[in-house]
């Protein structure tokens, strides 16, 4: 009798517990009919970065009738940079302390202010010409032949002007795009300007550097290494199959901005 009473009590308690449990809620259906809409989204696996870049290549067009040759030179520059130039730059960075590298860069930058001044005068840029003149005088005297750069600290930063910009200033078109061995991107106008700047610097022979360089080619090598050391661009850094087109476009547009300054 007692056993039956205990069983009946247990069954009653179980029934009450089940009665107190809330009924399961019906799944809430959103207005669009989906309970998990993200599962219904479909992505196009082919729409990757390469496809996107290919669709925008039309905007990167630059007059480049020698593209086949330029691409081969670009590839040569890439390998030369990888196998020769950058290892030399790394060695230069390793064996020379920072203040020496800074002094070398300042010295060659000071030499560069000579063609900067000439081209600024040719473009009738009075204010810029005065600033470059003041910079050249300060760095050559107080900066000890340009080894230091007090002018920048006095509000006279380096301002690049070359004969290619001068030609562009007077309306000479840039002509076909060119990729120069080792030197990198250019065009017909700027390549001619580069030759004029080199000839002018040699004739002026500022601080006797041009004459010394003709007798000591190691000075030319040091200048080239310093130029590569101070240039941040690295071939392949864009990680794109269209790097050639991008570099060509950026160079062309940058030159337009420099001429318009």
Structure, described:
This protein is mainly α. The protein has one domain (63-260). Helices cover 62% and strands 3% of the residues. It contains eleven helices and two strands, in the order αααααααββαααα. It has a two-stranded antiparallel ribbon. The longest helix has 29 residues, at 67-95. The chain is globular. The N and C termini lie far apart (108 Å).
Question: Mind sketching the topology for me?
Answer:
Elements: H1 2-20, H2 49-55, H3 67-95, H4 98-122, H5 126-141, H6 150-153, H7 163-169, E1 177-180, E2 184-187, H8 188-204, H9 209-215, H10 217-230, H11 243-260
Antiparallel strand pairs: 1-2
Helix pairs in contact: 3-10, 4-5, 4-10, 7-8, 7-11, 9-10
Portion of residues within helices? 55-70%
- Mean pLDDT across all residues, rounded? 86
Count of all domains:
1
Parts with pLDDT < 50 across at least 5 consecutive residues: 1-8, 15-21
Compute the number of helices. Answer: 11
Distance between the termini: 108 Å
Query: What is Rg?
Result: 34 Å
SS content category: mainly alpha
- What is the chain-wise order of helices and strands? HHHHHHHEEHHHH
Strand order of the largest sheet: 1-2
Tell how many strands the DSSP assignment holds.
2
Q: What percent strand?
A: under 5%
Taking the sheet with the most strands, its summary is: 2 strands, antiparallel
Compose a concise summary of this entry.
By secondary structure, this protein is mainly alpha-helical. It has one domain (63-260). It contains eleven helices and two strands, in the order αααααααββαααα.
